[in-house]
Specification:
mainly alpha; 14 helices; elongated
């Protein structure tokens, strides 16, 4: 929205300057023309400070403060008329550069909006609320959270009258492999530092590293629910998408990747989520949107594409074979 407002300001300002410059200024007297030129130069300088804060010398090199025009030694003095024409030429060139920059920014914004619309159409938004966990997952979550968790222990599920009549035939929830898994989950240490929010995220990361993907999903959702403004939220949403991707659920993963990219595009894991979204769409056999995502990643995050995420970017693009 801010970009559109800026563009809307640039167009009438540039058009106004062009109209003023196009007026038959040379028909005026020398004194009148000098006054009009000074006024026009001051207005262009004001536009520079508004549209390009900081006085970027790329667009208005002749108007930089502290940079007086110096004549080469031995150069004969020019006439006042020639000086005014030179200044008029400089102003016309500056307006042309400003207009070109406005058009370039406008085109870039339109392309970015088109890419985002295509991505939104291809992936479902992540659920806003944390879904209720099953009995086994709730048991694991309670074991994971340990005494440091503030949420109350889950209530046992109600049993039917038939089940109550034959309790001896009921199989324990933690029997066989479930008991071993629960013991393995409990063996993953939960950090305890001065930052409880970071501890919750770090524990979810440790569960992910141990390949306990469902438990990691539950833990990361718990973190996002309890600490929605924590500095680790970008990490958590991206890691949550990865946990679903590793667990064989690319559609759910795509939702979390897209949500993280839209919510915090400049966040610590915004670039990662856009690149991971391309992989999720590839696994969903949606090559077109996968290629849109990876092309957007390359154009919006060139530093990451050439640096930290280059191996993953190269591998994903090779698998996609985008045009």
């Amino acid at each position: 929205m801010m970009m559109k407002q800026l563009l809307s300001k640039k167009r009438p300002l540039a058009a106004l300057i062009a109209m003023v410059i196009a007026a038959p200024a040379l028909a005026q007297s020398g004194t009148d023309l000098e006054g009009r030129l000074r006024k026009l130069e001051a207005e262009v300088a004001a536009i520079q400070r508004t549209v390009f804060p900081g006085g970027d010398p790329r667009y208005f090199p002749q108007l930089q403060t502290g940079q007086p025009a110096a004549s080469a030694p031995g150069t004969p003095a020019t006439t006042p008329g020639a000086d005014m024409l030179a200044r008029m030429d400089a102003l016309e060139g500056q307006v042309a550069r400003l207009t070109a920059q406005v058009e370039e920014d406008h085109n870039r914004l339109e392309k970015a909006e088109a890419r985002l619309a295509a991505l939104e159409a291809g992936a479902k938004a992540a659920p806003a609320a944390i879904p209720a966990a099953g009995a086994a997952s709730q048991t694991n979550l309670a074991a994971m959270s340990g005494p440091a968790a503030s949420s109350p222990a889950p209530k046992p599920a109600a049993t039917s009258s038939a089940a109550s009549a034959k309790p001896a035939q009921a199989k324990p929830a933690t029997a066989d492999g479930s008991a071993k898994r629960l013991a393995a989950v409990r063996a993953v240490p939960k950090p305890k530092t001065q930052d409880p929010g970071d501890d919750e995220y770090s524990y979810g990361f440790r569960l992910f590293e141990a390949s306990f993907y469902p438990e990691s999903q539950q833990q990361l959702k718990l973190f996002l629910q309890k600490y929605p403004k924590h500095s680790r939220t970008s990490y958590a949403r991206n890691l949550l998408g990865r946990a679903y991707l590793e667990d064989g659920n690319p559609r759910e993963a795509a939702g979390w990747f897209l949500q993280n990219y839209k919510t915090e595009p400049k966040g610590a894991r915004g670039p990662d989520s856009l690149l991971n979204l391309a992989e999720a769409m590839r696994q969903l056999n949606d090559k077109d949107r996968a290629c849109v995502a990876i092309d957007s990643f390359r154009s919006e995050y060139p530093a990451e594409a050439a640096g930290r995420l280059k191996p993953q970017y190269d591998a994903t693009r090779a698998r996609l074979k985008c045009n």
